[in-house]
């Protein structure tokens, strides 16, 4: 089978070094952003110290035609930023406090289930895939799985919170930089997004690598037991992604509907008008939903795809040969992805300068193309040096011989499938192309035809992405079985730092436009921030395409890891137990969507009533002589989202337990497969990211249930007794 060209010491240096480089690069971007001061004196001195500048560095302010370049505008921007930051921080602390209770309870449940399988045994057992060796006892698996679960949850929390803090730090600075030109504002917004992207990628990789090395001190050469315990890391990240996505999404849409329905429709005032009581809650929602929520979601996929690849890899021949570098190949791919994203970011921040609003969207799309091309080359190199020339992979009861170039192709297939999904999404969501123009044209005959055309466009937009995912799955499975699918999912997420930078850019630009409107800045500034926001809306849709596509591959990879560890070789769809599982599983994403949509409706209703009340009872509010009660609207969205996220979360957590205990492993496998297919096929729906998080959560709960080298039905038998 052969050894790898990259020695173990090289791997031990490469992975943490790439993580630390990413953190250092993120700090550098933050320092550059911080040079834009939110004080009149700071701005003036910055301009005085630099006669010229490029890409976010200080330069003289360009005087506006309306003459509003005064100190009061800067102070207003600072006050609005503080209000948005306080609202977002308050929501996240409230959310994390409630979710923290769940995390502790679920961690205890994990420990009890996994430890009780063998009666909290402390004696070693023969390894399932190598009976000549002894593997660690069930109690150890329970303890280490619980620890990794908590680490995954905490890492997800930290990543989401840091992303939100960075976004709220940068929004007003982007507004102020728009006074120098659209190029300067773009660079500040993109640098801020890069801070989030690189911090999240580095934190996820570094914590996982440290956890593996610490656990290895106990597990030694028991790779199967080690990586089974590590799956808790993915489950922790997925759990936080679930609540972050649902809670943040409910908050965002409740505030958005309340602000737009009453403000723009009923009162005919502009968007982000300071007279609107829900305007601060609306801007807070952009951060808690599209920044913290999206960050947690992509981190969950990132951790899950890595864990799935590690679990399948632990059954392979290079696991028996104890080749450290080959076993950590998924982490090496992520490390190279960080370096590729770093180089790619420089193209946007230092190598090219935005001089016109028409150059913004191409610059963001150029990031995706450059990162994909460079990553393809990087994957080919690391596959050559970090994998044996050939090795065997578990393939449903048989061993499949795989070449290192085949694994490289699996990663590349996922990488390019993600790019295709991103550009197809952009085609169907950008106003530069005919699909959106046709929907806009349908408005001439009323709202009904607009809704019909919009739904038709949404359903049609699924076709090409589904084919891209299907081809990716077929090619990856043909080359390297379930390990190939896991690596394809990881390939799609290998450029996560760039993807998150682009995703975070959108909400930051949106907030910048809102701050410009609320601070009373000129129409010229508002046009610049609107141009930034328009490009951000399109690229945010591209990011959602990545999230959906990667979630589909990750779900299948987790399903493969589950059947691999549970020893299931076939799932007979003609079996009544499996078929009813497929039907129920296909229904679950729609049930989940119904619950979240109703939650949004309930929260939005409360918000609309409060906004109407303030307009009707506060004298002088419409005239602008009185100030609205922003805090009450923020509190309504916070309380409603926290309360309404509990039922969807309970559905996700209880479904696998109830189905498994009452109907057994066959029905449960059908539920998982049905949920996966239904979630992917409904990807045209705006709430699909929550569906995909729900599907991945189901799979991870079950994957943890296959620990201690037992079949799932043993665990279910114990649970029912």
UniProtKB/TrEMBL annotation:
Keywords: Ion transport, Magnesium, Membrane, Translocase, Transmembrane, Transmembrane helix, Transport. Its main location: membrane. It is found in: Endomembrane system. It holds the Pfam family H_PPase. One of its GO terms (molecular function) is diphosphate hydrolysis-driven proton transmembrane transporter activity. One of its GO terms (cellular component) is endomembrane system. It is a multi-pass membrane protein. Its EC number is 7.1.3.1. The chain crosses the membrane at residues 13-33, 98-117, 137-164, 185-212, 327-348, 368-387, 407-428, 448-475, 482-502, 541-562, 574-592, 657-680. NCBIfam families: PRK00733.3-5, V_PPase. This is H(+)-exporting diphosphatase. The lineage of its organism: Eukaryota, Viridiplantae, Streptophyta, Embryophyta, Tracheophyta.
């Amino acid at each position: 089978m052969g050894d790898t060209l990259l020695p173990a010491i090289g791997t031990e240096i490469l992975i943490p070094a790439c993580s630390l480089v990413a953190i250092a690069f993120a700090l550098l971007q933050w320092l550059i952003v911080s040079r834009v001061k939110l004080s009149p004196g700071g701005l003036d001195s910055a301009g005085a110290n630099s006669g010229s500048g490029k890409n976010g560095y200080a330069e003289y302010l360009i005087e506006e035609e309306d003459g509003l370049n005064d100190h009061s505008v800067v102070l207003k921007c600072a006050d609005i930023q503080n209000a948005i930051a306080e609202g977002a921080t308050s929501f996240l602390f409230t959310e994390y406090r409630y979710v923290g209770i769940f995390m502790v309870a679920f961690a205890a449940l994990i420990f009890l289930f996994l430890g009780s399988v063998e009666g909290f045994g402390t004696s070693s057992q023969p390894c399932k895939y190598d009976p000549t060796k002894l593997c660690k006892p069930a109690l150890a698996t329970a303890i280490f799985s619980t620890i990794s679960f908590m680490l995954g949850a905490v890492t997800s929390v930290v990543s989401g919170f840091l992303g939100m803090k960075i976004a709220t730090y940068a929004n007003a600075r982007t507004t102020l930089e728009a006074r120098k030109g659209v190029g300067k504002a773009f660079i500040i917004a993109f640098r801020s997004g890069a801070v989030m992207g690189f911090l999240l990628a580095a934190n996820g990789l570094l914590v996982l690598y440290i956890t593996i090395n610490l656990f290895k001190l106990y597990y030694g050469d028991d790779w199967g037991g080690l990586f089974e315990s590590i799956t808790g890391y993915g489950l922790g990240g997925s759990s936080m992604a679930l609540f972050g996505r649902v809670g943040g999404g409910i908050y965002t849409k409740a505030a958005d509907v309340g602000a737009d329905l009453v403000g723009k429709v009923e009162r005919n005032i502009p968007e982000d008008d300071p007279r609107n009581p829900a305007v601060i809650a609306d801007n807070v929602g952009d951060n808690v939903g599209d920044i913290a929520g999206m960050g947690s979601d992509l981190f969950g996929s990132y951790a899950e795809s890595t864990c799935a690849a590690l679990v399948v890899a632990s059954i392979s021949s290079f696991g028996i040969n104890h080749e450290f570098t080959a076993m950590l190949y998924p982490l090496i791919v992520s490390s190279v992805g960080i370096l590729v994203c770093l180089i790619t970011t420089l193209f946007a921040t230092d190598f090219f300068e935005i001089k016109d609003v028409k150059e913004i969207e191409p610059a963001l799309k150029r990031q995706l193309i450059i990162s994909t091309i460079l990553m393809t080359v990087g994957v080919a190199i690391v596959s050559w040096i970090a994998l044996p020339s050939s090795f065997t992979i578990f393939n449903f009861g048989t061993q499949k011989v795989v070449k290192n170039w085949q694994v490289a192709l699996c990663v590349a297939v996922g990488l390019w499938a993600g790019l295709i999904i991103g550009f197809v999404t952009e085609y169907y969501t950008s106003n530069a192309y005919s699909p959106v123009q046709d929907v806009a044209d349908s408005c001439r005959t009323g709202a009904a035809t607009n809704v019909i055309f919009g739904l038709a466009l949404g359903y049609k937009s699924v076709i090409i992405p589904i084919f891209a995912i299907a081809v990716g799955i077929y090619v990856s499975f043909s080359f390297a079985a379930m390990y190939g699918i896991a690596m394809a999912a990881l390939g799609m997420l290998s450029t996560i730092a760039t993807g998150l930078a682009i995703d975070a850019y959108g909400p930051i630009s949106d907030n910048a436009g809102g701050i410009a409107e609320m601070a009373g800045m000129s129409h010229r500034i508002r046009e610049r921030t609107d141009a930034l926001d328009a490009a951000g809306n399109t690229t945010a849709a591209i990011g959602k395409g990545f999230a959906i596509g990667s979630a589909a591959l990750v779900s299948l990879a987790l399903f493969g890891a589950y059947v691999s560890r549970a020893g299931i070789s076939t799932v007979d769809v003609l079996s009544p137990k499996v078929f009813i599982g497929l039907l129920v599983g296909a229904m679950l994403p729609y049930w989940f969507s119904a619950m979240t949509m109703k939650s949004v409706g309930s929260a939005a209703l409360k918000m609309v009533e409060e906004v109407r009340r303030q307009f009707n009872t506060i004298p002088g509010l419409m005239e602008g002589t009185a100030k609205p009660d922003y805090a009450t609207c923020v509190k309504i969205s916070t309380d409603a989202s926290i309360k309404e996220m509990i039922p969807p979360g309970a559905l996700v957590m209880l479904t696998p337990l109830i189905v498994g205990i009452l109907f057994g492993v066959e029905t449960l496998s059908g539920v998982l497969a049905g949920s996966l297919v239904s979630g992917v096929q409904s990807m045209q729906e705006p709430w699909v990211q929550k569906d995909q998080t729900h599907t991945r959560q189901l799979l991870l709960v079950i994957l943890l249930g296959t620990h201690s080298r037992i079949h799932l039905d043993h665990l279910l038998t114990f649970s029912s007794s």
